[in-house]
């Protein structure tokens, strides 16, 4: 069962480990996402930003049977030049969604995004918005499969490497009840998992 809890400062090491793990995973597949050479945040600056988000209560941890499986930060801010003030006013913004590669294929990212939508609905916002690494087409396809659509590629006012802007209306989610789901009967063959985001 997947549970989602608010992150604490004690989770910072786990989140940094997830970031380093996923960066290596992406690099092995030919992606430049999060690499310093392609203007990704160095791990020290990433840790500082996530630490501030943890202090502000903006970061969440997905767990599977008590083991951290992914993270997401949700607030109402974005880097300059991405979303307009009116777009920010009616949305929550997703940052730093990372799923542990050992939990790939278990819909951790799906649950984290649904949690962001639930937070948006609670705050009476109508959209979940995010910026994705501009050159990572596999990531773009993932967000499309999750019901997001590409709003635009941010213009020259946005100087960072994540300029592909995706959004999804909150009312397009079917909010799952937060009750335990029965454990499935084990299958004869192991399930193949694709990489999570």
Number of beta strands: 7
Note poorly predicted spans.
177-197
Q: Specify the CATH class.
A: Alpha Beta
- By CATH, the topology is Aminopeptidase
Summarize the structure.
This protein is of the alpha+beta class and 197 residues long. Helix content is 30%, strand content 23%.
Quick tags:
197 residues; alpha+beta; Aminopeptidase; 7-stranded mixed sheet; disordered C terminus
Describe this protein's structure:
- There is one protein chain.
- The protein has one domain: Gcn5-related N-acetyltransferase (GNAT) (Aminopeptidase, 3-Layer(aba) Sandwich), CATH 3.40.630.
- Helix 1 packs across helix 2.
- With 197 residues, the chain is of the alpha+beta class.
- The chain is built from 5 helices and 7 strands, in the order E-H-H-E-E-H-E-H-E-H-E-E.
- The protein has a 7-stranded mixed β-sheet.
- The C terminus is likely disordered.
Please specify the SSE layout and strand pairing.
Blueprint lengths: L1 E5 L5 H17 L14 H13 L3 E6 L2 E9 L9 H5 L1 E9 L8 H15 L4 E6 L4 H9 L3 E5 L10 E6 L28
Parallel strand pairs: 4-5
Antiparallel strand pairs: 1-2, 2-3, 3-4, 5-7, 6-7
Helix pairs in contact: 1-2
């Amino acid at each position: 069962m997947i549970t989602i809890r608010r992150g604490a400062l004690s989770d910072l090491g786990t989140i940094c480990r997830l970031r380093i793990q996923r960066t290596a995973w992406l690099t092995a597949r030919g992606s430049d996402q999060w690499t310093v050479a392609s203007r990704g945040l160095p791990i020290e600056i990433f840790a500082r930003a996530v630490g501030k988000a943890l202090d502000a209560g903006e970061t969440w941890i997905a767990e599977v049977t008590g083991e951290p499986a992914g993270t997401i930060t949700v607030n109402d801010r974005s880097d300059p030049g991405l979303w307009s003030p009116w777009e920010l006013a009616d949305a929550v913004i997703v940052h730093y969604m990372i799923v542990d590669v050992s939990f790939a294929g278990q819909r951790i990212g799906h649950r984290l995004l649904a949690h962001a939508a639930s937070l948006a609905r609670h705050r009476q916002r109508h959209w979940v918005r995010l910026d994705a690494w501009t050159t990572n087409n596999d990531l773009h396809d993932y967000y499309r499969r999750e019901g997001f659509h590409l709003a635009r590629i941010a213009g020259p006012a946005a100087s960072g490497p994540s300029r592909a802007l995706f959004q999804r209306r909150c009312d397009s989610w079917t909010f799952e009840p937060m009750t335990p789901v029965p454990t499935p009967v084990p299958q004869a063959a192991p399930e193949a998992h694709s990489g999570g985001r």
